[in-house]
Amino acid sequence: MVLVAEARPEDVPSPRRRAGRLRGAGPRALGLLAASAVLAALVVASVAVGDKPITLGTVFEAFLHYDDALDDHLIVRGLRVPRTEVGVLVGVALGISGAVMQGVARNPLADPGILGVNAGAAFLVVLAIYVLGITSLLGYVWLAFAGAAAASVAVYAVGSLGREGASPIKLSLAGAAITAFLGSLTTAVLLVDLSTLDQFRF
Fold it and tell me: What is the rounded distance in angstroms from the CA atom of residue 178 to the CA atom of residue 176?
């Protein structure tokens, strides 16, 4: 027995909506191509530009005919390429996380500052410096992850209260409230202990 789902009228896009999607696809494709060209130019500039001027010819030579006896080749392959790779990966991670956050919150203006993620990360790092005396960079990273995750869960839990569930407006309000609360706690800890303030700023 084969069950065929009947399409509802609201599920079928109208001709006007289909035409609007087709019209918007062209500008989006052009924007994507332009952004890709800008990214490629910035990658080349990141590898070529630095404290020591290196010509583009030398940059390409470092990739095609690498010689570890040449300082310029060492600078390009050992310093500037890793720097560029990290920059690109961080940009990709920020873009994906922003898209996920906006999709979950159903709000095109959602960002880590509005939804309490930054405040949660900062508060847990400051608290760990003040209470536990943690000074390692790796410790800061994992504590920031944990604080951001805890703040995100708290914002979603508060924003989900009530019969309507987690609406964009409630999530934004919950995020603003928790951001203000955690920010005040962070400021209080920093004002109490100047050594924590110096370490946190550093």
Answer: 6
